[in-house]
Write a structure and sequence with these properties.
By secondary structure, the chain is α/β, with parallel strands linked by helices. The protein has a single domain, classed as MoaB/Mog-like domain (Molybdenum Cofactor Biosythetic Enzyme, Chain A). Helix content is 43%, strand content 19%. It has a six-stranded mixed beta sheet, sandwiched between helices. Strand 5 and strand 6 form a beta hairpin. Helix 2 crosses helix 6, helix 3 packs across helix 4 and helix 5 packs antiparallel against helix 6. The model has no long low-confidence stretch (mean pLDDT 96).
């Protein structure tokens, strides 16, 4: 499926304050564009639950995005609140995606066990939490790329989605 529209939300206190450039958002955008998909919007926010929730709700409910990727805030640090913010806005969970990402990441590093990332659906938009490291974010997204087109077809209730089974 062509034409998948992505939003990328980078969650980092330091990047939001301009102390460190965002490397993960651009790395994810490059991978998305290499698949002939589009990045409709990118935004950097601090690790603040209310702001993350508000952005996810606004983006998912706008109809402008098929998939929203978050990068950052999925670990054990006290300010890592992305999974909680995401849980508060999704209507249905998609645990298979994060199970696959963690399983693939475990082949590279035992630190994958420390990821608290989640994935879920709000309306017709898929939201996926990714790690904050550019390398890990790209590797995690690569592990679920093979199913994203079909996932979006199903969310759009595309009649052609059944032919992909």
């Amino acid at each position: 499926m062509t034409g998948i529209r992505f939003g990328i939300l980078t969650l980092s206190d330091r990047s939001a304050r301009g102390e460190r450039p965002d490397a993960s958002g651009p790395a994810l955008a490059d991978l998305i564009r290499s698949q002939s998909w589009s990045v409709a919007r990118q935004l950097i926010l601090p690790d603040e639950g209310p702001a993350i929730r508000a952005a996810l709700i606004e983006w998912a409910d706008s109809g402008q995005f098929d998939v929203i990727l978050t990068t950052g805030g999925t670990g054990f640090a006290p300010r890592d609140v992305t999974p909680e913010a995401t849980s508060a806005v999704v209507e249905r969970s998609a645990p298979g995606l994060v199970e696959a990402m963690r399983a693939e990441s475990l082949k590279t590093t035992p630190h994958a066990m420390l990821s608290r990332a989640i994935a879920g659906i709000r309306g017709r938009t898929l939201i996926i939490n990714l790690p904050g490291s550019p390398k890990a974010a790209v590797e995690n997204l690569q592990s679920v790329l093979p199913v994203l087109s079909h996932a979006v077809q199903l969310l759009k209730d595309d009649p052609g989605s059944e032919s992909s089974h």
